[in-house]
Automatic annotation (TrEMBL):
Residues 17-70 form the Double zinc ribbon domain. This is ComF family protein. Residues 192-232 form the Phosphoribosyltransferase domain. Pfam families: DZR_2, Pribosyltran. Belongs to the ComF/GntX family. It comes from Azoarcus taiwanensis.
Amino acid sequence: MSLSLSNRVASFASAWVEALLPRVCFLCGGHGDGQRLCPACVAGLPEKPVAHCPVCALPSVDDIVCGRCQRDPPAFDATIALHLYVFPMDRMVQALKYRGDLSVAAYFGRELSNALPYPNYDLVVPMPLHVRRLRERGFNQAVEIARHLGRAHGLRLGSGTVRRVVDTPPQADLPWRERKANMRGAFACDTSLDGQRVLVIDDVMTTGASLDALARSLKAAGAAQVDNLVVARTPPPG
């Protein structure tokens, strides 16, 4: 069975399992009201800072572009992050990535969909995985999240638009300053994107090095605008 076919089978199987089993809240185990989290746990999720940089989504005074983005502008144009990557968002992301809980992807997809009431994009691009890591994991969590958003808004999903051509070490294993160098040349885009507005989907944004490298590849292919929509943003160090 091909990798793409096995991914589709896994997605369909997960959807059937979700439909057949009673839904309980991921966090407290209570009744989830047909959702992955109950209303009480949803109300307690960690929100992003009220004032934040519109480019990198880190805290910033009066929502102005932060000094870091002014000094060294990334290739992407804007970032929307729904939560801080702290408990319990870290547990939910890890359950999706490492335990294959695709119901979490559906929940994240619905959240991101609600964050884009009037989407104005030509293409949705999930953060790609290298083929080796994709084979190990069996699915790409960003694709599973983006699938729900694309369906909700009728947006074209370009999961094969960009390839991850370098099997980089996990970013989490590297110091912050080394992550940008680690991602250099990691992506390749063979599709013409002349003038297109692209929305990139990812689960977690830490330093933004991966998203910056991906945006550079998309703009080199002609994209006019690249925005990020992520579930969670890692707080700044210290």
